[in-house]
Amino acid sequence: MSEPILEVSGVAKTFILHLREGAKLPVVEGAGFDLHAGECVALGGPSGAGKSSLLKMVYGNYRVDAGAIRVRDGEETVDVATTAPRRLIKLRDTTMGYVSQFLRVIPRVGALDVVAEPLVHDGVPVAQARARAGALLARLNLPERLWQLPPATFSGGEQQRVNIARGLIAHRPLLLMDEPTASLDAANRGVVVELIEEKKRAGVGILGIFHDTEVREAVCDRVIDVTSFGRAAA
Ligand SMILES: Nc1ncnc2c1ncn2[C@@H]1O[C@H](COP(=O)(O)OP(=O)(O)OP(=O)(O)O)[C@@H](O)[C@H]1O
Ligand SMILES: [Mg+2]
């Protein structure tokens, strides 16, 4: 098999609750798994198991106490756990995308430009980026009358579709997704399943949290049970 695009090994993390007299909350210990190109792996386990936390560690939003998170970036391998912030930003620009659970709304920017922005950032001409954004929003059944409006007042499901379109529009070899379909109806969940399958065919490796069983079964090749990463008692 090809070299993994993501290799997590020996990752441990304990939250220190400063407002609770420094109480310790261990989340994961000895977390380890691989992810290959074209593969979709789900993080599983009950609420509070540490799925979102682990995803944030891979993206570099949460520091880890121990272990390595190696991401292949072309010919190089970057360890998210120890790399410099500037290298992490570059890694996110070229290699690692993140679809959060909720859209972080940018004031006064219309939906079409919110979605087109990652392509513009990659150097795609604005008109072309907008055309691709429109095509993606149309596939996700976002009514065209909303495209020029800022998503702040959109419904939960409309915002989630804008968020998914923004997260999927540019090519990133590694995609992290935290419950991308939680507020969607069945028809739009189906569209997201198709989009994820297209990404896999394009060789993208996906690590995600998919609460919806149907979506998970449709797109995921394996489930990693986060509770197996020994969450020791405090
Ligand atoms: N920044 C933080 N500071 C302190 N504790 C945190 C922080 N982030 C998460 N936790 C705690 O870590 C544990 C795991 O949280 P996490 O959000 O990773 O769970 P999850 O598996 O994603 O759950 P859900 O399925 O409900 O989304 C929880 O007990 C949570 O309270
Ligand atoms: Mg979560």
What would you say this structure looks like, in words?
This protein is an alpha/beta fold. The chain folds into 2 domains: 155 residues, P-loop containing nucleotide triphosphate hydrolases (Rossmann fold, 3-Layer(aba) Sandwich), CATH 3.40.50; 67 residues. Helix content is 34%, strand content 26%. The chain contains 7 helices and 9 strands; from the N terminus they run βββαββαβαααβαβαβ. 38% of the residues are buried. The model has no long low-confidence stretch (mean pLDDT 93). The site of adenosine-5'-triphosphate has 12 residues, from strand 1, strand 2 and helix 1. InterPro entries: AAA+_ATPase, ABC_transporter-like_ATP-bd, ABC_transporter-like_CS, ABC_transpr_LolD-like, CP_lyase_PhnL, P-loop_NTPase. Keywords: ATP-binding, Lyase, Nucleotide-binding. Belongs to the ABC transporter superfamily.
